[in-house]
């Protein structure tokens, strides 16, 4: 049995994995001052970061149209796939999952959709697990179950210099956003049940990054874990996080990736993002 695996552009898969997994990626759209471009193809995170720091710049994002998913699913089935598992960004953060579901309903039971409940490599790890299961010849239900199981094993933690961009995009409540201005509090956020919420609060950016490592180590548990460190325009900060996590996790750390987030997440977090996604192996 041949099962195709689809994900979306917010998975931010590491460049070193290019060509290693059979994955079809459907891009989201970023709109900058009325001009729209496809994430990862027509618009870069650097362009978004520049726009966010400009006066009176309007930046927003939009999901793929259901027809985009319908076209991809039909093509994969026409090319010989027996089924499709489609793994996507949290339904509470984007309409992408809903669009994929609408397309799946049009196609029929050969397509199953998974809400990863998060974004970035929190989405990427279950998508990769699904692709690995498909490569081993598992059937549609087994590949879907693999994606679902691995989505439950990820923890997504991140720090941003300001909560203003999350507030503007409606990804965090106004009350929580006030924490970013009150008494110089630096919130650490995580994705809980598909939504962005405040996980902890510290006084400085340096302490926030130290606390981010502590929380990531806790999330890894006592077993083996994979880690992905994400950033936006702060490669040195991200490299320091990788070094600290390697030192703290030691032999329990398996795969470790460092990637810059793409334009969609950049549009909602702003420059200065530092994030850690922890994937428990079992």
TrEMBL record:
Keywords: Lipid-binding
InterPro entries named among the record's database cross-references: DegV (IPR003797), DegV_C (IPR043168), DegV_domain_contain (IPR050270)
Gene3D superfamilies: 3.30.1180.10, 3.40.50.10170
Xref: Pfam families: DegV
UniProt-recorded name of the protein: DegV domain-containing protein
Species, as recorded: Actinoplanes campanulatus
SUPFAM superfamilies from the UniProt entry: DAK1/DegV-like
PROSITE patterns named in the record: DEGV (PS51482)
PANTHER family reported for this sequence: DEGV DOMAIN-CONTAINING PROTEIN DR_1986-RELATED, FATTY ACID-BINDING PROTEIN TM_1468
């Amino acid at each position: 049995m041949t099962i195709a695996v689809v994900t979306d552009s917010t998975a931010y898969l590491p460049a070193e994995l290019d060509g290693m997994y059979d994955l079809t990626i459907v891009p989201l759209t970023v709109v900058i001052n009325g001009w729209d471009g496809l994430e990862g193809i027509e618009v870069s995170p650097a362009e978004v970061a520049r726009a966010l720091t400009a006066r009176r710049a309007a930046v927003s994002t939009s999901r793929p149209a259901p027809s985009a998913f319908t076209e991809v699913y039909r093509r994969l089935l026409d090319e010989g796939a027996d089924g499709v598992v489609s793994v996507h960004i949290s339904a509470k953060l984007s309409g992408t999952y809903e669009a994929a579901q609408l397309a799946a309903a049009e196609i029929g039971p050969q397509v199953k959709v998974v809400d990863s409940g998060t974004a970035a490599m929190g989405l990427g790890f279950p998508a990769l697990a699904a692709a690995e299961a498909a490569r081993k010849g598992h059937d549609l239900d087994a590949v879907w179950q693999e994606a679902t199981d691995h989505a439950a094993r990820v923890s997504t933690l991140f720090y941003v210099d300001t909560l203003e961009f999350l507030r503007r995009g409606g990804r965090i409540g106004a009350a929580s956003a006030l924490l970013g201005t009150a008494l110089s509090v630096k919130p650490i956020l995580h994705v809980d049940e598909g939504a962005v919420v405040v996980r902890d609060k510290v006084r400085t950016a340096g302490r926030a990054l130290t606390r981010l490592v502590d929380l990531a180590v806790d999330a890894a548990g006592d077993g083996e874990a994979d880690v992905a460190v994400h950033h936006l325009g702060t490669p040195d900060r991200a490299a320091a996080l990788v070094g600290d996590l390697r030192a703290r996790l030691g032999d329990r750390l398996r795969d470790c990736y460092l990637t810059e987030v793409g334009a969609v997440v950049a549009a909602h977090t702003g420059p200065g993002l530092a994030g850690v996604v922890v994937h428990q192996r079992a």
